[in-house]
Amino acid sequence: MDPSPSNQPHVLLTDDDPFITALYRERLIKEGMTVATAQNGEEALESIQKQPPDLLLLDLNMPRMDGTEVLRYIREQSPCPNLPIVVLSNACAPEFIAEVSQLRPTRFLVKYDNAPNKVIETILTVLEEARASDVVAPAPADIHPQEFEPATASLEVVLDRLETATSIDEQRESVLGIYRAVQATLEHFQTLPPLSLPYLLEDTLEPLLEKCYALEQLIGPALVKVLARILHAVEKCAATPPTTSVPSSPVLLHVPAREQVNEWKTLLDRPGFSPCAVQQSSSAEDLLHHNVFYAVVWHTARKSAARKALRLINDRATKGRLHTIFVMPQNDADRWSLEAEAGDSLALGDVCAQEALPALLYALQAS
Amino acid sequence: MNPFKELNASLGGDWEETNTIVRLFFESAQEQLNNLNQALAQEDREQIAYAAHQFAGASGTCGLTELSGLLRELEHAAPQADWPQLAQQLNRIRDGVTAIRSQWDASQSNNAPT
Question: Residue A131 pLDDT > 70, yes or no?
């Protein structure tokens, strides 16, 4: 294939949905671009080899070779590691978000939240940035426990990103970064002598979390509640440094997918937490039969199921405080956060086990 | 009520552009409903989740948030393989598409999108 004529930007659209490729193909041609399309990752890489694009619009969930693999290949092995890549995905699988963020997409857009004009605007902006700098520097890597020092500098980075985020999606990404940063920081604190804890917490984490909390308008009530709980637990921890940071508490897990069960078990097998008896539940009625647990993690795709579970949990909670963390689709979590509050519970949207873990740890600490 | 009012607004009020996208959407919707029917008949939960995921993205792109929400629910429910429940959800989705189609046709025949 011949290279694109003159200075027309060349864009490669990769999506397995013909509606999406047809839609954006027309729109980009109208904007004066040349456009190639691919229906899966293999076709995308072939197309890039034939004619490297100026920008790749990339879906994630595709057959044969998915978008994450394409992104990884381009960033780690291809001759064009700095290729501008706009990910346009449904992003309903939380593990994708976490994995993809580490692979430095230039932008990450969610289909549900972005009308066609917003996507086109983003493509034009990224192309403009690429022209301005000649080589597009990849976006800063997402914060990940293995990749940063467990210190407040990391929190400051994610807080800065939160304050400058312009879309809900960017805000969500930043808040997930905060979860991870707080989690890793606390893990670091657990390795320190107990006497140093109050100073460290009061002087570092607490002010930062207060700053987070002040962003209520920006991050929404459900996330503010998470941060409020973290702050409360930090205050408590600072006031009376515990000999072990987290009690050894049985947790009841209601998780439909086996992979998620294993993920949770791996996460809960940790210093300061073990031995943690993780019991697995397959239905809401299990809440009545298991009687030795202090927190519940309830993954569900349906609000009605969560409502039933909450009713049972509230009945049972009269015997003692019981914290429940519901993990559900983002839209449901946003709508459901107020109902969940009534039961000393928390609704988190579209998060993986690792991202929900800080909320669970603090729930246990507070109980 | 015009179900694509939001899409049109995001396109700067360009009805010609909106018409093109809506036509593409209905073609795609018909195909996705066929895919979902077939996957349900074959009790293929992976295919249901996959088609629902794709259809949800297209619906969200067109500003059809309620339909997109129903499809995401279907996608998340598919792994549990509760076939009567999935059939009910698919019926709701089919009815939703029919309603959107009727509203769109009505808005076109009135030639006065609201």
Answer: yes
* For chain B, the helix, strand and coil percentages under 3-state DSSP, each to the nearest 5: 80, 0, 20
pLDDT of residue B33: 96
Residue A351: name the closest of A340, A359, A343, A339 by CA. A359
| Residue A76 pLDDT | 83
Compare CB distances from A20 to B7, B57, B69 and report the shortest one's residue: B57
- Which one of A57-71, A171-185, B71-85 scores highest in mean pLDDT? B71-85
Residue B29's domain spans which residues? 5-110
B72 with A331: Cβ contact below 8 A:
yes
Looking at residue A106, the DSSP 8-state letter turns out to be S
Among the partner residues B50, B61, B76, nearest to A329 by beta-carbon distance: B76
User: Domain A10-133 belongs to what topology?
Assistant: Rossmann fold (3.40.50)
Lookup: tokens for A309: 């579970």
> What residues in chain B have per-residue pLDDT under 50?
112-114
* Contact across the interface for B61 and A302, Cβ inside 8 Å: no
The verdict on a CB contact (< 8 Å) between A92 and B79 is no
Q: What is the mean pLDDT of residues A200-222?
A: 60
Cβ-defined contact of B72 to A302 (cutoff 8 Å): no
Distance from CA of B60 to the nearest CA of A (A): 4
More confident residue, A86 or A4: A86
CATH topology of domain A246-367: Rossmann fold (3.40.50)
Q: How far are the Cα atoms of A99, A122, B6, B28 from residue A117, in angstroms, in the given order?
A: 27, 9, 12, 20
Residues 63-102 of B with CB under 8 A from A: 63, 65, 68-69, 72-73, 75-77, 79-80
